[in-house]
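Provenance and format

Records in this collection were gathered into a single text stream. Each protein contributes a sequence line and a token line. The two records reproduced below are adjacent in the stream.
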Amino acid sequence: MKDRTPDNERAYRSVPLTIRLRRRGRTLQTIDRRIQVARRTLQWWRCDGSMTAAKELFGVVRGILDTMEMTFPCPACLSDAWAEIGIHRYWRTEHEPGGVWYRDEEVRLRRQVLFDVWFPEAAAVTLRSRRCSICGMICYAPRPDNAELTSKYDFLGAAMPGSPTPGTSGLVEAADAARASGILEALTPHLAGEGSVLDVGGRDGRLMAPFADRGFKCFLVDQMEHVRPGVRKLGDRMDDVPAHLTFDAAVCSHVLEHVAAPRELLELIHDRLRSGGVVYVEVPHEVFYNNVWNPIVVQPVEHINFFTLDALERILSGSGFTVEKAGVGLSSYDGQPLPVIRAVGVKPEAP
């Protein structure tokens, strides 16, 4: 090692330290601890062969890694054939006072989830984009599970207390009305007159308006407290739906990209539909417009699944549905134009 002068000592300590842990020959995670961990590691190098500092350092890093899954099958097709296609690194200082995202509350709060809830020991977090070699779906690793996602919503709920009220701008209302009409039109060929519709994760049930106008009984599963007129909330999650209730149709719009187990959610919806029942599914087409090599945005805790058309068709088929129609198109979300992938699946008639 070179002799250290005050100048090169400062330069040495300013260089981020990259720690790579390998288990079964695979890199699990790269975490840049920068000055804090560099200093702790420097103490270990100076400890005359003692392993105490080394074990302490390894324990901190391993604790961070063990909070999330590094090995998991494709949520859409269950394949284990992944190809790593991109890396994105997040620094804690970017959302702290003086950081580039500090004044953007939406991004700052979600980055706080990343650093204060999921990786509380980290000064930086590296996420790796993986593309399924079978269906093209993209996820990142390490991957949060249901518990981590629940902790995310608990944190955001505490940071933004109270149930959000629906958007009232004319632009948003008009866009939501057009989107809801399109969903009704897609499902109408499979519905015989009046019936019952379940909106899964539909916020306040705003997409149910045209169904209610047609005389359908409209139900909602969502954590939002405020519900639109003509819609009955059954609970916060699918487990809250009374066992005796079944439905003629279900809507799952802009939900699957958020959940840890999208296939399981579709299976639950399948179980609650009558024979011949139909589901409408829509997800953002982010692999197309959001950097195909690394579709992870500035606050990566919002979406954890990035679908292709093939992936959406496969996950529907794997959940027991017959895919009647699927394609890529243009829709909207909160009044903003958005490329989407949409599909209609039918539950086969009982033999």
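Adjacent record:
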Amino acid sequence: MSKKFIIDNCFYCNSTFPDELDPEIIEFFKKVDKEPDCILFIPYMFLYESMNSLEIAGRRKRFKPGIEEGLFSILKEFVKKVEKSPIVDSNNLRKLSKKYLLTMYDASYLELAIEYDAILCTTDFDLKKAAKKEGVKVWRPTLIF
């Protein structure tokens, strides 16, 4: 049986942004690359949310000169490798957003994790809390493959 993971933007950024690197998250991505039965999913809007994070971080001068373009290239390659989900049910999305006071972005990650019965990979405190209340498994470094 395959293991399914929903990757959110903040989790992804913790594997690529130089000032946010998390060794445990980097190790997670290395393990997943070696496991053929692991499937990573991202919501339809992931690329846009991640591009926005990169753009804003660049404007705030969080990167050394020349790094930003490389990060955009890495992002595009990542998006090519993972499964893109169809657009989620907007009614459920709005319900989750209202119930847990989440952004629509974050509610889309939660909706996907529920729909695919997948493990949610996030470092966002509010999203983790909402996921646990919905009975969704949340990634942690001790997770066994």
